[in-house]
């Protein structure tokens, strides 16, 4: 590989060297990037382009949900979605009248809004820039991204084709990958729902149909809430390797507790010991344990960077599920539903591994290995739903445009299995290990580099940093040419 840095011709008035930015994905991450770029006023109309097949920007897979039973798992005052204005969403909820029309939003002394309301808020944040023509919304899925004459060529699945100087990959969470035993045993069976991307995925389930959900995280609890809101009353079984359900949010407001940045732990074991010590402290002080995990969230990126790759992998292998159950907590409304349904015997949680699935005429038989000695339990249900969460390890292969970039060496998988490899400036790492200066990775797909990058505040902060880098490139005094032999 050869890298040459050349000075640009001096001019009296700086002329932007970056004229068009293409953002692949228009969920929360993509819409935030587009809005922040537009606010700087340095782009001509249609020079900020967002490829997103949905009708509106800002919602994406996470928040584009019409079901009123689906709520944010974070209180509205903690949804710091707009940099510089942390209470913007809470203020909008009140001013728009949506809070008044949602009497069930208040719980545990805080507001847990509907996800559809947050999607509407984000759409409103970007809409004026679309109306003015500053941001162009291409309602297509990006099918191809390639290099052409020193620029990026992006082609959509509906015929759109344009060139850009910078590309930001912000496609968000990939779909889950069903366990192999389910994929092979239930392939083609309409009672097997491998992912919940379609809004009508649950519509055919009848009130008295038993349901087995593979997964026990927030996505699985979404299934529980959505089905019960539709009048479903039969037994629902959640199956996962550990059986750990998300923990509830604490009542009231509280400050983060614990300083993990003094003598930052550099092994998985030392991190675990520090967390346990902090939990003992808050227990003795009568504080909620959730305050420790809020501190971990705020300091998460610095903690993650201090861990060597081998220790990061140990954290993911041994501590990930337990951490996620405490980090990604369920809203009080769902916690109340879980307690009620469990007490009534209509909700079960099973720890184990699926070893076989056999479809019958009236029901599906699922064999689950439980316990260390391979004891197998048979469960029967009319429906099997996969809600294991996104498969970040296979995100590149799941999208043709990303697979093509990987094929030519301009994109690589994160070595931890958390998405796409990038540096701490969010630039994609090529096969040769060097960053691609004009290709960025934004949002959860960059978790491998940052660790904590799933919540709205963290994604908004990363988007702000990426925008500053792109703006800095626009008026650069030098240009680096990278010649790669892949």
Automatic annotation (TrEMBL):
GO terms for molecular function: hydrolase activity. Keywords: Hydrolase. It comes from the Bacteria. InterPro entries: FAD/NAD-bd_sf, HpyO/CreE_NAD-binding, L-asp_N-monooxygenase_NS-form. Residues 22-173 form the FAD-dependent urate hydroxylase HpyO/Asp monooxygenase CreE-like FAD/NAD(P)-binding domain. Coiled coil: none annotated. This is Hydroxyacylglutathione hydrolase. It comes from Rhizobium fredii.
């Amino acid at each position: 590989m050869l890298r040459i840095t050349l000075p640009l011709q001096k001019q009296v008035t700086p002329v932007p060297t970056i004229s068009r930015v293409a953002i692949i994905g228009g969920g929360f991450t993509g819409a935030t990037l587009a809005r922040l770029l537009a606010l700087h006023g340095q782009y001509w109309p249609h020079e900020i382009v967002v490829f997103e097949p949905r009708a509106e920007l800002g919602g994406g897979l996470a928040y584009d949900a019409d079901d009123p039973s689906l709520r944010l798992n974070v209180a509205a005052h903690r949804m710091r979605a707009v940099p510089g204005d942390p209470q913007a969403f809470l203020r909008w909820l009140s001013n728009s009248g949506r809070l008044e029309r949602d009497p069930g939003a208040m719980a545990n002394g805080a507001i847990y809004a509907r996800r559809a309301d947050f999607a509407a808020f984000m759409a409103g944040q970007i809409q004026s820039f679309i109306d003015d023509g500053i941001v162009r919304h291409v309602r297509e899925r990006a099918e191809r991204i390639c290099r052409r004459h020193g620029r990026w060529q992006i082609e959509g699945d509906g015929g759109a084709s344009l060139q850009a100087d910078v590309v930001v990959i912000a496609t968000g969470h990939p779909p889950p990958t069903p366990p192999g035993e389910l994929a092979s045993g239930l392939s083609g069976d309409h009672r097997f729902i491998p992912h919940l991307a379609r809004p009508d995925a649950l519509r055919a389930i009848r009130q008295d149909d038993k349901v087995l959900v593979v997964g026990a995280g927030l996505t699985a609890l979404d299934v529980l809430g959505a089905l019960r809101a539709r009048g479903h009353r039969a037994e629902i079984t959640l199956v996962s390797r550990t059986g750990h359900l998300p923990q509830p949010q604490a009542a009231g407001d509280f400050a983060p507790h614990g300083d993990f940045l003094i003598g930052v732990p550099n092994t998985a074991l030392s991190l675990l010991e520090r967390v346990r010590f902090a939990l003992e402290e808050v227990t003795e002080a009568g504080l909620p344990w959730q305050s420790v995990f809020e501190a971990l969230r705020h300091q998460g990126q610095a903690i993650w960077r201090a861990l060597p790759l081998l220790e990061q992998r140990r954290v993911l292998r041994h501590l990930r599920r337990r951490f996620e159950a405490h980090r990604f907590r369920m809203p009080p409304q769902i916690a109340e539903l879980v307690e009620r349904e469990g007490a009534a015997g209509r909700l079960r949680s099973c720890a184990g591994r699926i070893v076989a699935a056999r479809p019958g005429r009236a029901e599906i038989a699922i064999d689950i290995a439980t316990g260390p000695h391979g004891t197998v339990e048979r469960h029967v249900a009319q429906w099997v739903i996969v809600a294991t969460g996104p498969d970040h390890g296979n995100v590149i292969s799941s999208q043709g445009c990303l697979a093509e970039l990987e094929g030519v060496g301009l994109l690589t998988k994160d070595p931890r299995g958390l998405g796409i490899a990038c540096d701490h400036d969010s630039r994609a790492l090529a096969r040769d290990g060097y960053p691609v200066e004009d290709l960025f990775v934004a949002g959860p797909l960059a978790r491998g580099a940052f660790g904590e990058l799933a919540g709205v505040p963290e994604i908004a902060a990363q988007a702000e940093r990426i925008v500053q880098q792109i703006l800095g490139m626009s008026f650069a005094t030098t240009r680096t040419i990278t010649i790669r032999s892949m």
